[in-house]
Amino acid sequence: MSNKLTHEEQEALVISEDPEHPANLISELCREFYKLGWVTGTGGGISIRQGEHVYLAPSGVQKERIKPEHIFVLPFAQSSVPKPGSKRDFLRIPSKKGLTESQCTPLFWNAFTMREAGACIHTHSQHAVMLTLLHPRDAQSFKISHQEMIKGVRIGGVGKTLSFFNTLEIPIIDNTAVEEDLTESMAAAMEKYPDAPAILVRRHGVYVWGNTWEQAKTQSECLDYLFEIAVKMLLAKLPLVGDN
Amino acid sequence: MSNKLTHEEQEALVISEDPEHPANLISELCREFYKLGWVTGTGGGISIRQGEHVYLAPSGVQKERIKPEHIFVLPFAQSSVPKPGSKRDFLRIPSKKGLTESQCTPLFWNAFTMREAGACIHTHSQHAVMLTLLHPRDAQSFKISHQEMIKGVRIGGVGKTLSFFNTLEIPIIDNTAVEEDLTESMAAAMEKYPDAPAILVRRHGVYVWGNTWEQAKTQSECLDYLFEIAVKMLLAKLPLVGDN
Amino acid sequence: MSNKLTHEEQEALVISEDPEHPANLISELCREFYKLGWVTGTGGGISIRQGEHVYLAPSGVQKERIKPEHIFVLPFAQSSVPKPGSKRDFLRIPSKKGLTESQCTPLFWNAFTMREAGACIHTHSQHAVMLTLLHPRDAQSFKISHQEMIKGVRIGGVGKTLSFFNTLEIPIIDNTAVEEDLTESMAAAMEKYPDAPAILVRRHGVYVWGNTWEQAKTQSECLDYLFEIAVKMLLAKLPLVGDN
Amino acid sequence: MSNKLTHEEQEALVISEDPEHPANLISELCREFYKLGWVTGTGGGISIRQGEHVYLAPSGVQKERIKPEHIFVLPFAQSSVPKPGSKRDFLRIPSKKGLTESQCTPLFWNAFTMREAGACIHTHSQHAVMLTLLHPRDAQSFKISHQEMIKGVRIGGVGKTLSFFNTLEIPIIDNTAVEEDLTESMAAAMEKYPDAPAILVRRHGVYVWGNTWEQAKTQSECLDYLFEIAVKMLLAKLPLVGDN
């Protein structure tokens, strides 16, 4: 860690009266995501990248009770790739004892570096998990077509929006014991599926990103809607692809 | 566009301390609809017509975060029919960059012109979409009877309320790639089914209208209740019509 | 109508800073019930009897937007039985135009007179309606046993609480075209089932009462919980009575 | 009862401007738990132990309307074991008439004495109850593995967190007519299953504890999530243990 900012400069990175400041947004959005059942039991969260600054929530805390002063700030350009277990560069570490940066850090970085995303959301939504459970054990991806909500999703999460007649495809990767160990398989899936706007993690949840926090959030909503209706369709034995 | 109002006159069209002013109502109701799952991911919304003014939300924005200053105001009497893709007359365009009027505009106009409605609501409710998915591919309409909530629905959306013993019938039309392209098939269904209080769009959602915003909202609630219970009944293999 | 109070005296019946005043409670509780899905689309509501005064919401309005000044006040002792369609005595009629007293009035009176209830709640909960739909057409009642939540329900709605080992039984009556026309069949069911704490109305909802508004509300919650879990049990083919 | 504190000293035990004071927390958390459907109809609640003081809600009241002045305070060291029906020592009894301490008192004490827990939560969550109903009548426990949310649960509720590959096991005990009569069977199950973080009560609900109120709450959320998804998996005929 190479933190050379004064305490006042560090505080200024997260204390703002602007409700759209990333530290305020992360706190507010985590409260909203909690109500949606996306981040209960300390799981899930959101990271926002604004230019060269990345804002992160702490690991293992009640996400609906995060305050701006709990937020970590990291330089987007790290002195080394922020691999699992590696030391990272920080601009600000919260003074509250016992806080460590989110275990999703290298996964968020996948979205920032491979898709130039401005925000990445991770949820434990039951719709995402049930969807992976209802797929065969060796399924590589989830596909759905002919749903209006597909139009709210962008190619690769950051490109043009999909059409009603496009088939949305999202890779499913296996879960690992340690969250950070998903880094490589998530990156591999993002390479293999360049058009996918998200990565489903079997028996775990989903990672969704976008150019901005607004696009990451609205795409998370569209995808969660599609996961939910896909679960209902599978249980009702309706095909997910096609318009029969 | 033939906008001849001054900036002050335009602002006065949407800034009001009256909570029942259409610009305030649209903002408040969209927050409520978001909680109901009707307008997540930027989808859905409400338009209110008050005399010769029509109030519209922007397209493709987070509906639960709309503010009165984001609202478009159009004269109800347009110099030409506000067809898909056509230029429209505006009384006020929001100054925030990048906002365009709702893509549902010509669909809302169907309700205003063909039913003299005072408000029209569009939702992506999963109950509406699942209901269309559980109907055969060639089904022209959804029918249900013997439900108390039918009594909250009006003939044609704007006439007398239905009776418990009436059969409610709502046409189902196919979805299109571009929302505006639903204009003609929605109008055709409204002509063919003059008593229907709403139009279901397969794999997409529903349009509901009423004489006032209150009637449009309470009818949307009654219909969404009926869509939800109809889905449950179909999954439980209970007949929707009759009292067996 | 034999209203001899001055305007000021009438207003004093509903305007109070006490949050536990019946006019304030009805407004607050209807907002809460709306969130529970009990009174959407103008359906359902609550009436409170405090000594010789009965407080009623208006008919056919958005229940979550009721204000204390919209509340009707009636003397409990009416000059004639408040039968369906009969003229009633009022202490206060809201000045807002077009408001009429709740169509449930004679049904609430059943609870007040036959059970000496202090409050009666009517909901259109889907759990109640689905439960009636999952019963055979000629079923006279719903029965359930061996559920902890049964312990929150009182004999006849106003007596001692039931035990975990008691079987709760609630009659199911047929719906009618006009809500007031349920008056006699509801009274007949209350006579036939003196221990029942509520009356289910097929394809419509439920009426629940209690000694006080608190007991009416907590019993409505316990019963709605039991209706919901009974629906789940029936769909999973689990028996409702017994502990197998 | 051996209460020797003055009235002022008693009030000081529950009146505080600190939102993290146990009396404030119990009130706030019960409101939150109500929204989750965990404590409707007066059921369920939370007790917090802070050093030698135990804070308890009253029995049989609307949990979402508890105020700090309704909280009981007991010395953790009781002059005799707080068995069912036994007299207990109090530091503070609310002055509001008719309040008695929670019927869960001896069950909370099980968690405090056998696990040195700092908080214990009891819910009537339908997911917990349905899960017990979907198990065979003679099942002694519920088991699940390969779920990310398992990682939010601690061994014995107070030890190290579980791994994704661990199998979580929670004993199921039979319900009794009187809540306090669960004391012995709950204690026996806690002895037989020292690693279990909770006790399921058939046809009733669940008890969950943790080192602190935060850990009790986040573990309750993780477990409730697992109960919910386990119910969905059982209904979809998916195995709960293994990764097929």
What is the averaged pLDDT score of chain A? 95
Largest interface comes to: A-B, 23 and 20 residues
% residues in beta strands of chain A: 15-25%
Order of helices and strands of chain A: HHEEEHEHEEHEEH
How far the N terminus sits from the C terminus of chain A, by CA atoms, comes to 57 Å
Name the structural class of chain A. alpha+beta
Number of helices of chain A: 6
Largest sheet of chain A: 8 strands, mixed
The tally of beta strands of chain A, per DSSP, is 8
Tertiary shape of chain A: elongated
Roughly what percent helix of chain A?
A: 25-40%
Low-pLDDT regions of chain A = none
* Assembly context of the chains: homotetramer
Radius of gyration of chain A: 18 Å
Strand order of the largest sheet of chain A: 3-2-1-4-8-7-6-5
Binding site for substrate (chains A, B, C, D): 104
Domain Class II aldolase/adducin N-terminal (chains A, B, C, D): 24-231
Enzyme class (chains A, B, C, D): lyase
Main location (chains A, B, C, D): cytoplasm
